[in-house]
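User: I want to check something. If I give you two sequences, will you return the structure for each one separately, not as a complex?

Assistant: Yes, each is folded on its own. Here is the first sequence with its structure:
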Amino acid sequence: MPKSIHRAEYLVLCELLRDVRLHAGLTQAVLARKLKRPQTFVSTVERGLVRQDFLQLRDWCLQCGTTLEALSAEFEVRLKETKKMARGKRADAQK
């Protein structure tokens, strides 16, 4: 199995982390300060260049005013939507 950063699901997570930050009204620079990290860290996370562990995801959520539970639930919803869209594209291609 490929490393998680090379899986399609990881792109969904990265997009979700960006959306969580934006929904909180935070810039990359502000979130980085809250996380005590450089702005480039937030950028590399959102672009999927570095993998986050459980505690880092929790910190991200807390600084954005949400929870891991909410992040996980939204992640599952987005995965289902992504899979549904992929099935639709395959069906259209077979026509």
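And separately, the second sequence with its own structure:
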Amino acid sequence: MSFKKIDLSQLCFDPFTKIGKEWMLLTAGSKEKFNTMTASWGQMGVLWNKNVLTCYIRPNRYTYGFVEENEYFTASFFKEEYRKALSFCGAHSGRDCDKVKETGLTPTEMGSGMSFEEADMVFVCRKLYSYDLKEEGFLTDDGIPEQFFGPQPYHRAYIAEITAAYVKE
């Protein structure tokens, strides 16, 4: 199956389910060298008159360096049958293993980024802005820092323009 480029206004889906429950793979780099990671935190909307996706990556993740070094990354969404592959990509580092080999996913160039043939929807994203989450930024005292960070570093947020959207034909 191949991908068809579509206008974002043609899409109708629940981002809470797509991101929070089905997850996405964030992928950055070139055909020669890239990495991917599973993400279940993010937002989609309109900012600065642009359609944007915001994602969050800890600086100790291997994918972080790839996103930092590249102008573009992709956010790829999959059907439930690929849950095991996404779980693997979230639990293992590309520093220590070949995620493509381990999961059986097939890399493919997608616009200005890399994705996977098995995805059913892909957004190509161009970084616009980034900022670091910090403990002192929390406005409530309901335990979020302790629950989600502990000794782990806080995430960097990336606000990125969705420059292209692809769906399976």
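Because they were folded independently, the notes below concern the second chain alone. The chain has a mean pLDDT of 95. Residues 83-91 form the longest helix (9 residues).
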